[in-house]
Task: structure prediction
Amino acid sequence: MKAHVFQPKRKGEKSPFWSARIRMDGWPKQKDFPLQVRQKRVAEEMLRAMVKEFELEAVGLAPAASIRAAASKPLLDHLAAYLEAVAASGKSKNTVGAYKRGITTFLSRSGWKTLADTGPAGFDRWRIEHEPSPKYANDVLGFLRTWFGWMVRRKLLAADPLADVTKSKIRNDGCKRAAFTPEQLDRLCACVPPVRAFAYRFAAYTGIRRGEMNQLRWGDFVNLDGDAPAVVVRASISKNARTETLPLNPDAAALVRQMRPDLCQPFEWVFRNRVPNMDTMHRDMKRAGIPPTDATGAKYDFHALRTTFATMLNAANVPPRVAMQLMRHSDMKLTMKTYTNASGLPLAAGVAALPSFSLPKINTPQNTPEGVVLGQKPAFPVVTCRRLAKSRPSVSVVSRWWTLAGSNC
Result:
C-alpha cells in the first residue's frame, strides 16, 4: 500500500489545494483524490481516514464508496437507469413497461424515496394497508427483487433488502382463467359487431395475447391465400422476445381473409384500438348470457381466450410438446397445468375409451371351499378346532398353523 498527499501542478504552478494519491494492495494502478483543503495537516488526516476506509472495504467491514453514494440517491433515478439497462438487454417493450408500471406504482404507494427506506417491514406494511391480490403482490415482489438484484451486481447495493420476504399464498382459484366452450364463443360473437367478433375468434384460434394482437400488422400474415397460412409474432412485440411463426387453423385463415380490407398495406394495423377492453367484454358477455366466472370460480376475461386455445389443443389430443410450442411457453407445466382448464377436457370420453376386459371371478362365502382363508396368497388350510389341550399353549395361526392342524380337534 502506498499513500501520500501532494499539491498538483498545472502549467508549472502548484495548486493551493492538496490531493491524495493512494494505491492499495490489489489495485491495478494508483488513484488521485482531490481533497479541496489548503492545509497539509488537514490533508494528511483526510488521507489516513481514506486509507482506513479502503482497508475496511477490502475485508468487507465497510460498504464500498459506490454503495454509500447510491444510498442517498433517489430511487426513481436508480429505476430509470435500471429500465434503460433492461431495454438494452433485449427485453420487449411490454416487459419493460410492466416493470415500470409495477415498480413506480409501488414506490408511490409505499412512500419509499431512497434505499434507506427499503426493507421487509415497508413491503409488509404495503401489503396490509393496500390489500393487493396475492398474485399482484407476488408480481410486484418479483419486479422489486429483480431490480435489487441488478443493483447488487452493479455494486450499488450490498444485499437484496427483500431477500427474506415470503410470497403471498394464493388460497383460492379466483385468479385462474376459465375456458370458453364453443357454444359460449358462438353466443358471444353473435351479439357483438363483426370487428369485435373477429378479435374474440382470432384470440381463441391462436392464443395470441392482447398486447401482441394490438401490434399485429397485415404484413405479419404469410401465405394467407396459400396452402400453409401462418401469422408471425415478431420478437419486438412478443412477451418472450422471440420471433415465432404460428400456423393458422383453416377456419382462422378464412376468418382473416374475410376481415382483410381491400388493398390493405403490409404496415397497416390489424387490431389497433379494436381489441375490446374488459368493460366492453363484460358487457358483451352479459348480453350473451355468460357469467363472469364458471362453477369452479375461474374467471372469464380476454386472457381466458388463451386458456381456451390451450384447452382445445389438449382436448383434440395434440401432443403436449406441440401444444407447448404453439402456446410459446418455455415450460411444459405452464401449458399443461396453468393454461389447460380441466373442466373443458373430455373426461367422460376418455374413460369411455378404455378397453373392455373380463373381470376375474371373485369367490364369495357361499362358494369358498371349506378350510381356505380368503385374501391369502397362497391360501392355507384351516381346520375348525373343537378344543385345545390344556397342556398345550396357544400359538399363532399364521406362524404355527401346522401345530393347530395336529392338535386334538
